[in-house]
C-alpha cells in the first residue's frame, strides 16, 4: 500500500517527511478514546456517588467540574502529552501543526469545538476526511493541524545548519540546484551513498546513471566522482534553500 506524504521544512530548517494517518486508523483511535472517556465518566460518577458530594452545596460545583472533565479529554491530552491521546498512542499517531511543530492550545481548542460538528452531523467530518488528501477533518483544516503516523514518519535530512552548505565560506557550484524540487532532492539522497556505506555495484551504476542524467539535463560535462557530484548538488540545494529562508 502506498502512503501519501506531507513534506515540510520546519522552523529549525529540518526537512521532515510525514505520513498522514489513514481514515481507518484514525477511526479506530477515535473509538478507543471513546471507550476511555466512557470509563472516565463511569469512574467519576462512581466517585461522586460514593462520597455523596452532589448533596453538598459547597462541593456541587466540584462534582459538576469532575463530571465535565471527560469532555475536555482530547484538548487536555494534546497539550499535556504533546498531541497524543491513549488511542493515538496505541496506534502510533500524533496531532501536529502543518509545519511539524507541536499543536498549540488554540488549535487544540478549535479542533475540539469543531469535533462536535464533524461527528455530530451524520459524520460530516468522516466525509471530509475521505475526500481530503491528508485525511483531515473540518477541525483539522480549520486549526491547521494534521494527524501523522509516527511509525512511518521519516526525518530525511538532519538540521540544515549541519550541512557544509551552511558554512559562511561555502560557495555553491551549481546554481541550477536551486530549481530542483524537494522530491528530486529526496531521490538523489536515496540513490547516492555515504562514505561509511559499502556501495554495491548496482548502487554505483544507479549513482552514475543519475549523475549523467542530471549533467545532461543541465548541459554540463560530468567530471570526477559521480557520487560526490550528487552530494554537491544536495549541498548547493541546501545553500539556496537556506538563503531563501533567512
Structure notes:
This protein has two domains: 6-152, no CATH class; 160-245, no CATH class. Helices cover 52% and strands 7% of the residues. The protein has helices at residues 23-51, 60-68, 73-80, 86-91, 105-120, 124-131, 138-143, 182-191, 201-217, 226-245, and strands at 6-9, 15-18, 93-97, 145-149. It has a two-stranded antiparallel sheet with strand order 1-2. Strands 3-4 form a two-stranded antiparallel ribbon. Helix 1 (23-51) packs antiparallel against helix 2, helix 3 packs antiparallel against helix 5 and helix 9 packs across helix 10. The radius of gyration is 25 Å and the shape is elongated. The model is unreliable at 9-14 and 153-165 (pLDDT under 50).
Strand proportion: 5-15%
Helix-strand pattern: EEHHHHEHHHEHHH
Query: How many structural domains in the coordinates?
Result: 2
Strand runs, count: 4
Low-pLDDT segments = 9-14, 153-165
Average pLDDT, rounded to a whole number, is 80
Strand order of the largest sheet: 1-2
The class by helix and strand makeup works out as mainly alpha
- Termini gap: 38 Å
Shape: elongated
Radius of gyration over all CA atoms, rounded: 25 Å
Q: How would a textbook summarize the main sheet?
A: 2 strands, antiparallel
Write a brief caption for the model.
This protein is 52% helix and 7% strand. By secondary structure, the chain is mainly alpha-helical.
Amino acid at each position: 500500500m502506498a502512503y501519501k506524504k506531507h513534506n515540510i521544512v520546519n522552523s529549525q530548517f529540518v526537512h521532515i517527511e510525514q505520513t498522514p494517518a489513514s481514515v481507518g486508523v484514525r477511526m479506530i483511535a477515535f473509538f478507543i478514546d471513546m471507550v476511555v472517556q466512557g470509563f472516565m465518566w463511569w469512574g467519576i460518577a462512581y466517585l461522586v456517588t460514593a462520597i455523596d458530594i452532589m448533596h453538598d452545596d459547597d462541593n456541587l460545583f466540584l462534582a459538576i467540574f469532575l463530571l465535565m472533565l471527560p469532555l475536555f479529554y482530547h484538548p487536555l491530552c494534546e497539550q499535556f502529552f504533546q498531541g497524543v491521546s491513549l488511542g493515538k498512542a496505541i496506534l502510533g499517531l500524533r496531532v501536529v501543526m502543518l509545519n511539524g511543530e507541536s499543536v498549540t492550545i488554540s488549535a487544540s481548542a478549535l479542533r475540539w469545538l469543531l469535533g462536535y460538528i464533524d461527528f455530530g452531523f451524520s459524520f460530516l467530518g468522516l466525509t471530509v476526511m475521505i475526500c481530503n488528501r491528508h485525511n483531515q477533518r473540518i477541525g483539522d483544516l480549520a486549526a491547521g493541524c494534521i494527524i501523522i503516523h509516527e511509525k512511518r514518519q521519516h526525518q530525511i535530512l538532519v538540521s540544515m545548519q549541519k550541512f557544509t552548505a551552511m558554512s559562511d565560506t561555502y560557495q555553491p557550484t551549481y546554481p541550477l540546484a536551486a530549481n530542483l524540487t524537494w522530491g528530486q532532492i529526496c531521490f538523489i539522497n536515496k540513490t547516492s551513498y555515504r562514505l561509511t556505506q559499502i556501495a554495491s555495484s548496482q548502487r554505483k551504476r544507479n549513482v552514475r546513471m543519475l549523475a549523467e542524467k542530471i549533467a545532461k539535463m543541465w548541459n554540463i560535462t560530468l567530471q570526477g566522482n559521480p557520487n560526490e557530484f550528487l552530494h554537491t548538488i544536495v549541498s548547493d540545494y541546501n545553500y539556496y534553500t537556506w538563503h531563501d529562508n533567512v
